[in-house]
Amino acid sequence: MSARPRPLMAAFALLAAGALTLGTAPAVSADPSPKPVTDFPHPDLGKTYDATVKYRSEQKAIDDGFMRTDDCGEDPTLGGMGYHYVNPENLGSTDPTKPAAVLYEEDHETGKRELVAVEWVVPDPTGTLPRPRLFDRDFDGPFDFAPVGPHYSLHAWIFKKNPKGVFTPYNPRVHCTPCPENHPKA
């Protein structure tokens, strides 16, 4: 990927943090022991899982260039997305092993963030790109959020089952509900 100016990288990071969100709050786990999805609808999702399972460690994601955010995306009727940690180097990627974002939710029991999904974000600043495809599926969008502008995205819920489908943007099992005040934060 070619070098991007810093303001553009920051704008893309903001995009991933707020993409498709209607509200924000801390994400929390409704499932005390989330298990990875293992019945992948496409064989290349196994490559994604293998490349990103190390990000169960939030620190490992940060060490590898994913920028931590404290905003959680949730739609009151569709469910949540969780916290988006964005790696600016992966923006525009359609490589199954290089998602632009890893998504976390907070566990009420531990107060720690747990990996639940990954997301690819393909900017289309001119609005002229053909719709990207990955896993034999079209990306969602285009979406137009300032200051980033037009882009496409694709979520994959490979670390927490989404009853609406692996590629559905929102997961009704993910919620942005604050942990109790007396619970220590990770």
| Rg over alpha carbons | 15 Å
The helix content, as a percent range, equals 10-25%
What is the first-to-last residue Cα distance? 33 Å
Main sheet record = 9 strands, mixed
How many H/I helices?
3
Order of helices and strands: HEEHHEEEEEEEEE
Average predicted confidence as pLDDT: 81
**General shape:** globular
Number of E-state strands: 11
Strand content: 25-35%
Helix/strand-derived class?
alpha+beta
Low-pLDDT stretches are 1-35
Q: What does this 3D model show about the protein?
A:
The protein is of the alpha+beta class. The chain has helices at residues 6-18, 44-52, 58-63; strands at 23-24, 28-29, 72-75, 79-86, 101-107, 113-123, 133-134, 137-138, 140-145, 149-156, 174-175. The strands form two sheets. Strands 1, 2, 3, 4, 5, 6, 9, 10 and 11 form a nine-stranded mixed beta sheet that branches.
Offer a concise description of the structure.
This protein is α+β, with helices and mostly antiparallel strands and 186 residues long. The chain has three helices and eleven strands; from the N terminus they run αββααβββββββββ.
Task: Quickly list its features.
186 residues, alpha+beta, two-stranded antiparallel sheet, disordered N terminus
Topology:
Elements: H1 6-18, E1 23-24, E2 28-29, H2 44-52, H3 58-63, E3 72-75, E4 79-86, E5 101-107, E6 113-123, E7 133-134, E8 137-138, E9 140-145, E10 149-156, E11 174-175
Parallel strand pairs: 2-5
Antiparallel strand pairs: 1-3, 2-11, 3-4, 4-5, 5-6, 6-10, 7-8, 9-10
